[in-house]
Amino acid sequence: MPIITLVALFAVMYFMMIRPEKKRKQKAQEMRDNLKKGDVITTIGGIIGKIVAVKDETIVIETSEDRVRVEFTKWAVSSVGVQTSDTPGTSKKEKKEEAVEVPEEPVNEIPAEEQ
Fold this sequence. Notes:
The protein is α+β, with helices and mostly antiparallel strands and 115 residues long. The chain has 2 helices and 5 strands, in the order αβββββα. The longest helix has 32 residues, at 2-33.
């Protein structure tokens, strides 16, 4: 009986943890293998740029209008395209405005006699 429980536990761990992780790694590797000149990418460090050259293990990206070029290894690519925040449609400014709401207080006028 304990052996059956151990085998069942291992099977559950395989299907819940190991197999999905292998699929994610395979998908990421496929994305990195299909990088081509002209793609806009985001690196794992958050740098956004356009690919200008692709080599066997590295890529060269242009990061700004000043034509700054930086070489990265392919494994440093996080995603193709510009990576955004988890909540689409809300910017940092909108979040700040939502969080800080100051109620308006009535303006107290100073009587003309005191001036």
